[in-house]
Amino acid sequence: MKDKLTVVKIGGKLLDNKQVLNKFLDSFSKIKEKKILIHGGGIIASDYLIKLGISPKIVEGRRITDKKTLDVVIMTYAGLLNKKIVSILQSYSCNSVGLSGSDCNIILANKREIRKIDYGFVGDIKKINTKIIKDFLSLKITPVLCSLSHDGKGQILNTNADTIASNISSELSKKYDVTLKYCFEKKGVLANQKKTNSIRKNISKSDFNTLKQNKTIYDGMIPKLENCFLALENGVKNVFVGNPDILTNEKNCTKLTL
Amino acid sequence: MKDKLTVVKIGGKLLDNKQVLNKFLDSFSKIKEKKILIHGGGIIASDYLIKLGISPKIVEGRRITDKKTLDVVIMTYAGLLNKKIVSILQSYSCNSVGLSGSDCNIILANKREIRKIDYGFVGDIKKINTKIIKDFLSLKITPVLCSLSHDGKGQILNTNADTIASNISSELSKKYDVTLKYCFEKKGVLANQKKTNSIRKNISKSDFNTLKQNKTIYDGMIPKLENCFLALENGVKNVFVGNPDILTNEKNCTKLTL
User: For residue B156, which residues of chain A lie inside 8 Å, CB to CB?
Assistant: First the structure.
């Protein structure tokens, strides 16, 4: 029987509120099985960009990452947020290690080709090296990964955290029984965008296609759910989307199924 | 017989010049034995502090680290510099992992008590956990440590990189034959501050006391050399101070002896 592994992606506004983040990390540290945390940090990066006089540029929910923006992204994701998360987890007796995709060569990526839009220093995942992640997990060290990859030639690249979570979960499902949890500020995928309590308890892949067509699901939720289904198709056992309560209770959120 | 280990501390202006840093990392990656790199990043932190409208405060060569300054220190040390160094090392086929003292609980420290000066969020080392460092070294992964520690209660602390290098080298000398190299922009400890070529080839502990008394050695060089002698007294085999050439040639620099 495979060991259980929980992969949690934290995003949205959860990272910006100290109390919310602390409560989330307290719950996360109490997950008994092996676990991995993956985070971005978009809003904090944008705050620092503005303070430094650089205009944040977001197109279709994705950040245009020029050279100066990349430096701020590296500073906030791999520096400020990653190290704060790790030091808080240590205070909850959860031994953890903060990593970017260049550390231990974990995430190799190709700089995205310029087509309609030049995204700048954005990377599309080429290869995930899971050996060192497995080593950490067997040493009882929890990897905390920020959403940066590298090209192997010295260039760090900005990579979507949802995509990293999906890809890593898929790779690790060869060895573990993986449950993937996407945490954000909402209770789940809403059936009606105007009603925050209108949670869809279950979304199958065919539901997803209908919900896209009738525009119940749109914008950034589309790639997020695509990442969910990709993970399920690649061997991940369970995928949930919801607020931090899903760390302890999988009933009041959205469960994705094929 | 013990395995050889080289611990290199890079500091000063070497971190600010892209070409110099690349050349240094190329040489560093070619060290065949086990190795560790330790870095600070003072000048880059000060640059960002100024850009963000925060005045850098340095007293007796040490940074006063208030809350806002600490965030910038974390961003530049653990983020920008640490991840750039790691991604460049990866491009030289040197598999490395960027770490702060909170990662894997490597450096536990106490926040410095307020006496004459309130240094703010500055940590004095309490304990170094070398187990994970040894694990990385046996996995052929080179640890790249930035000069941050933590208090185990969720607080990151700014800690002098020279002191970290000395302490880690001392601890690891129980298992390895350690050579510690302090790299900066000068060729070594100068016999005459006005002559950049007046290198002292050798400084013993009694020489050091004389040189302090006659003020040939002063300011920041005093704690740096104190760290060197502390390392030698605690089992480190060789300590050198010089420019990046000391990575390949130990003859044109300053060798410290007891």
Answer: 83-84, 87
Contact B87 A155 (CB under 8 A): yes
Q: Is the pLDDT at A12 greater than 80, yes or no?
A: no
d(CA B161, CA B187): 19
What span, in angstroms and rounded, lies between the C-alpha atoms of B82 and B100? 9
Distance CA B228, CA B240 (A): 8
**What are the structure tokens assigned to B85, written together?**
């160094």
Which segments in chain B show pLDDT lower than 50? Answer: none
Query: What's the fold here for domain B3-187?
Result: Carbamate kinase (3.40.1160)
**Residue in chain A lying closest to B150 (CA):** A87
For residue A133, list chain B residues with Cβ-Cβ distance below 8 A: none
Nearest chain A residue (CA) to B50: A52
The closest of B248, B92, B131 to B181, measured between CA atoms, is B248
The number of angstroms, rounded, from the C-alpha of A49 to the middle of its chain's C-alpha atoms is 21
- CATH 3.40.1160.10 is held by the domain A3-257: yes
The residues of A whose Cβ lies within 8 A of any Cβ of B are 48, 51-52, 71, 74-80, 82-84, 86-88, 90-91, 95-100, 102-105, 132, 135, 139, 141, 148, 150, 152-156
Task: Report the distance separating Cα B230 and Cα B140, nearest Å.
Answer: 28
Tens of pLDDT, residues B187-218 = 999 888 788 888 999 999 999 999 999 988 88
> Which residue of chain A comes nearest to B107, CA vs CA?
A87
Indicate yes or no: CB of B132 within 8 angstroms of CB of A139: yes
> Quick one: tokens of A211?
């919900």
Chosen for mutation from B18, B68, B90 (greatest number of chain A CBs closer than 10 Å) is B90
With b for 16 or more beta-carbon neighbours within 10 A and e for fewer, the A81-114 pattern comes to: bbbbbbbbbbbeebbbbbbbbbbbbbbbbebbee
Nearest to A103 among B51, B52, B97 (CB): B97
Q: What pLDDT score was predicted for residue B127?
A: 98
Of B114, B234, B247, B112, the residue nearest B166 (C-alpha): B234
Domain coordinates in residue numbering, chain B: 3-187
Chain A residues lying within 8 Å of B80, measured CB to CB: 71, 74-75, 79
User: For residue A85, which residues of chain B lie inside 8 Å, CB to CB?
Assistant: none
What is the rounded distance in angstroms from the CA atom of residue B96 to the CA atom of residue A40? 22
DSSP annotation of A240: E
Supply B43's token pair. 């000048």
Nearest to A87 among B76, B88, B155 (CB): B155
Mean pLDDT of A78-85: 98
Instruction: Please indicate, yes or no, whether the overall pTM of this predicted structure exceeds 0.80.
Output: yes
How far apart are the C-alpha atoms of B9 and B143, rounded to whole Å?
12
Percent of chain A topping pLDDT 70? 100
